[in-house]
Design brief:
The chain is mainly beta and 178 residues long. It contains 2 helices and 12 strands.
């Protein structure tokens, strides 16, 4: 299993107790949906390592988890800060009018007028708002705010995102002096 085949579930906050249990932060919209989780991939170095879950108790966006083969506080401390992943295949299918951010990668970004801006390379978490990293048709990188107010249509079948972009936004990146 590769990271590209997965989505990040969250990360290990710290050990919990003395028997190797861990506290997870579940960075997802509905943490309760993961209360019956049977396994998780933990990123160790550059590799995803699978762990089976013995028990999990979800409270809010945190969970207390006992993993098989993690039986001491020392083993638990070794996992502190590790990123947690699940395969993309386990994500529920969304209705046509909804999408996951990772679905947008590879989509064409177009203005409402039909003008092609470029190809979406990734979705970046910039804190206050998410950004689309786009390879412009000129070859330059362009960053576009990903907000509901700017989205006109997400065409999953045609693999394109149509947006009503503010005047001059793209030109800022294309200006030679920038």
């Amino acid at each position: 299993m590769q990271v590209d085949d997965c989505y990040q579930l969250g990360y290990v906050i710290k050990p919990h107790g003395l028997n190797g249990e861990l506290q997870f932060l579940l960075d997802v919209d509905s943490p309760q949906e993961y209360s019956a989780l049977e396994s998780v991939f933990v990123l160790q170095g550059q590799q995803l390592v699978p762990f089976f879950i013995e028990s999990i108790a979800v409270r809010g966006n945190k969970a207390i988890v006992a993993l098989e083969e993690v039986e001491s506080v020392d083993e638990a401390w070794a996992l502190k800060g590790a990123e947690l992943y699940l395969p993309l295949a386990v994500l529920p299918e969304l209705p046509d009018d909804q999408y996951y951010y990772h679905d947008l990668v590879g989509f064409a970004l177009e203005k409402e007028s039909g003008e092609l801006i470029g190809e979406i390379q990734s979705v970046l978490d910039a804190g206050a708002q998410d950004l689309l990293q786009v390879k412009h048709t000129s070859g330059k990188e362009v960053l576009v705010p990903l907000t509901d107010e700017l989205i006109v249509k997400v065409d999953k079948t045609g693999r394109k995102l149509i947006m009503n972009l503010p005047e001059g936004l793209i030109e800022v990146y294309l200006n030679e002096e920038s």
